[in-house]
Design goal:
Length: 73
């Protein structure tokens, strides 16, 4: 899934909703050498600390384009 204008780093260790699906941020997904070997030199540097978020999915449901990502209090 692609997101915009969301501080994914702040969601590590936190619960959040994507639409009605509850998730919990586990760890940052840092780019790796394998990704760089499949693309081009420098991709790791450009994606450092911006590679995404690994999360556990805690509930089922549908996620649709445009659904908000909202922190659970």
């Amino acid at each position: 899934m692609l997101t915009r204008d969301i501080d994914l780093n702040a969601l590590v260790g936190k619960r959040f909703l994507i639409g009605k699906v509850e998730c919990e941020g586990v760890e940052l997904c840092e780019p790796c050498a394998h990704l760089q070997s499949m693309t081009r030199p420098g991709v790791i540097k450009g994606l450092a600390h911006r590679g995404g978020l690994n999360a556990d999915i805690l509930s089922d449901g549908d996620i649709s384009v445009g659904d908000a990502v909202v922190a659970v209090a």
